[in-house]
Amino acid sequence: MNKVALIVNGSPATATVEPRTHLADFLRETQNLTGTHIGCEHGVCGACTLLIDGVPARSCITFAAMCEGAHITTVEGLDNDEIAAELRAAFSREHGLQCGYCTPGMIVSARDVVMRMDNPSEHDIRVAMSGNLCRCTGYVGIVRAIQSVVADRRSRGIAAIRDGGRKELGPVGSGHAAAAIAVAGTPARTPDKKKSAAAAPAASSAKSDADFKPQTSFVQSFTVAHPADVVWDFFGRVGEVASCLPGASLNGEPVDGHVQGMIKVKVGPIAADFHGVADVTRDEATRSGTIIGSGKDARSNSATKGVISYTVKPGENPAQTRVDVTIGFTLTGMLAQFSRSGLVQDVANRLIGAFVQNLEARLAHQGDGAPAPAVAAEFDAGSLMTSMIKDRIKQLFAKLFGRT
Ligand code: FES
Ligand code: FES
């Protein structure tokens, strides 16, 4: 993790993020500046365009750590900007937006055109704005809006600024490269292979990284229709608990609190088998426990590390138990896209729902000799997300039309 310090919309902004965190995620997730939209995340659509040291840049393909010390201006920071205000009025007047998804990026790029280009033709504007895609308007209103602002400003004697405020040669943000390397602590070109190998996480123990701070964490609570004594006992049988989690299995019960196992996850076309280790601790006095685990999937080159803490408490009546769970994890590699907080929270709700259902079924059949209820052999996050999206659409319709 890297501590990154930027000046965002004129104020200092600091957060500790992964080296791979791009600037758009930094702003949206750590600064709550959601005006910077994310579309393609490939530098193609322009929805995430903002200003780095006054120059338009794609924040989805710019690492936050590489901008150390830079002045970032998002669409929120253009509230009182004269050109942006004129553009906002012109976009409304000329029907330059419909859903508005592309608009923050459009305003930032259009502002650069208005500032830099003296007397651009319609063709010049279309070329200059070709890095910003709009799926709604057909661009006619957008181009007209920009033309009208340019014409109005020139008629008021406000000339273009040829360099548009650029102060450095080279790619946007490159003026800060040296500082960024110092912050990341990364040697520029020649990594010390021996040192890297020594620093690699030990596979034999998940506890070894005492300083581990999860990138995403959340708290969940659920109620089980069985007494607290029964639930607490069950939580002590780690293999059985794992078998309630879709896709999870252990190689055996913990030895000295240490256990190995795997979880099968499917996200869209990506199927991953995370093989890993976990350290399990339990405290009878407080009826609480902790599981610290880490795992890797070789196929998707993804890795995860996480901490689960839980407390078992009596429920509202003696036949019920309340379980409070805190989950924190960091996901890296191809599946890291999956760790967006809102999405994770939704999926976690459903995963815990499935876990509770399986837990109830197992507790209900405890000791009656009946075979254990079947649990999904794979955690299919993709289908969970599809049903989640359906639910959200349903909720939206219910809100709009007052029915489901
Ligand atoms: S989200 Fe950055 S260019 Fe599309
Ligand atoms: S207004 Fe909808 S994408 Fe441009």
Descriptive overview:
The protein contains 11 helices and 13 strands. With 404 residues, it is of the alpha+beta class. The protein has 2 domains: 187 residues, Roll (Ubiquitin-like (UB roll)); 186 residues, Alpha-D-Glucose-1,6-Bisphosphate, Chain A, domain 4 (2-Layer Sandwich). The strands form 2 sheets. Strands 6, 7, 8, 9, 10, 11, 12 and 13 form an 8-stranded mixed beta sheet that branches. Strand 1 and strand 2 form a beta hairpin. It is elongated and about 85 Å long. The two termini are 44 Å apart. About 7% of the residues have low confidence. The protein binds FE2/S2 (inorganic) cluster (FES) (2 copies). The site of one FE2/S2 (inorganic) cluster (FES) has 12 residues, from loops.
CATH class of the largest domain: Alpha Beta
End-to-end gap = 44 Å
Secondary-structure element string: EEHEEEHHHHHHEHHEEEEEEHEH
The coarse silhouette is elongated
Enumerate the distinct ligands. FE2/S2 (inorganic) cluster
Low-confidence stretches: 177-204
* Class computed from helices, strands and strand pairing: alpha+beta
Number of spatially distinct domains: 2
Return the CATH topology of the largest domain.
Answer: Ubiquitin-like (UB roll)
What is the assigned CATH homologous superfamily of the largest domain? Answer: Beta-grasp domain
What share of residues is helical? 25-40%
Brief characterization of the structure:
The protein contains eleven helices and 13 strands.
